[in-house]
Amino acid sequence: MTPSLTQVRVRDCMHPGIFSCSGDAPLGEVAGIMAKHRVHAVAVTGGDDRRVAAVASDLDVVGAAASGREPTAIQVAATEPLKISADAPVRDAAQLMTEHGVAHLVVVDPASGYPIGILSTLDLAALYADDAREW
User: Fold this and answer.
1) Gap between the Cα atoms of 72 and 70, Å rounded
2) Contacts with 110 (C-beta within 8 Å, 6 or more apart), sequence order
3) Threshold 0.70, pTM exceeds
4) What are the residue boundaries of the structural domains of the chain, listed by start?
5) What angle do CA 15, 19, 23 make, to 5 degrees?
6) How far apart, in whole angstroms, are the C-alpha atoms of residue 115 and residue 18?
7) Hey, which bits of the chain come out as E strands?
């Protein structure tokens, strides 16, 4: 049975934890994080706090590599850092992803606003997979 997207919360299907780098990290470092951890996006942090300033996607990295440039993480991160509360219904996340044409959302703790995970389109697809766990 397919779950209702209004009943499942973001926290129930997100990937806990977040891979990140500083804004001045070179392109090779960003690509290395993606390759080592087999992820499609890396959060780029700004300043001294843990807040996400941008998200560098795999397509951002490929585009920069193809250009022959050696940008920093913040320069390559073309993906808007869209955030969603862990308590939000998955339906809200799906709508946000669709409206903005992104494949990843930064999941934030509703109380602190700090990032606690990532929700990807593949996480949402898993809700509909034939072998998905019971919701």
Assistant:
1) 7
2) 85, 86, 87
3) yes
4) 10-126
5) 140
6) 7
7) 15-16, 20-22, 41-45, 52-57, 83-85, 104-108, 115-120
Q: Please, what is the angle between helix 27-37 and helix 58-67, to 10°? A: 140
CATH C-level class of 10-126: alpha beta
pLDDT in tens, 36-89: 999 999 999 876 666 788 899 999 999 998 988 889 999 998 766 899 999 999
CB distance 72 to 26 below 8 Å: yes
Which amino acid, one-letter code, is at 60?
D
**121: part of which helix (H) or strand (E)?**
helix 121-126
| DSSP bridge pairs for 42 | 56
Residue 39 Cα to chain centre, angstroms: 9
Q: Cα separation of 82 and 37, whole Å?
A: 22
* Kind and range of the H or E run holding 33: helix 27-37
